[in-house]
Structure formats: structure tokens, C-alpha cells
Amino acid sequence: MIGDTTPDAAEQQLAIYRRMSPAQRCAIAAQMSAEARAITMAGIRRRHPEYDAEQARLALFRLLLGDEMFKRVWPHAATLDP
User: Fold this and answer.
1) Integer Rg of the chain from CA
2) Sign, Cα dihedral of 16, 20, 36, 69
3) Is 77 strand, coil or helix?
């Protein structure tokens, strides 16, 4: 068992994904990604209520991209803690 998923449950989930079309699997992946970003943004907002919307967005991008890529894309932006 990995994490909290039994092998039987994992097999059933995999079977469901295999029956889906590529477009359906892509839509689920996009939805999960959006939800993960929203949860991460909520955490940033909770830890840093003083951030305005743009600062919170930049903190999220720093977290997602890492410091090196973040500074390449936004070289003049403040390095805000996520």
C-alpha cells in the first residue's frame, strides 16, 4: 500500500483512467493542476495576509518555478516568501 491507497483501490482508479479518452484525462489533469495552484495560493495568502494580489501571485510563481527561473522571468521583482 502506498500512502493511504490500497492496491485494489489503486488498480480500480487506474482502470477508470484507462477507459477515459485522452481529452478526458487531460481535462482531469488540468483541473487537478488548477486546484493545486488554488490550494497553494490560499496557503500563501494565509501565511502572508499583508501581500496584495500581485505579490501573492509572484510568490506563487517563485514557488512553482524556483528561484533561478523566477529571476530570469521577473528580474526586477522582489523575492517574496511563498
Assistant:
1) 18
2) positive
3) coil
Q: Which residues contact 23 (CB under 8 A, 6 or more apart)?
A: none
What residues does each domain of the chain span? 7-73
The SS3 of residue 57 is helix
What is the rounded distance in angstroms from the CA atom of residue 41 to the CA atom of residue 7?
Answer: 32
Is residue 51 within 8 Å of residue 44, measured between CB atoms? yes
CA–CA distances in Å: residue 79 to residues 23, 43, 75:
37, 17, 10
Please state, in angstroms and rounded to a whole number, the distance separating the CA atoms of residues 3 and 66.
Answer: 27
Q: What are the pLDDT digits (tens) for 3-30?
A: 788 999 999 999 999 999 999 999 999 9
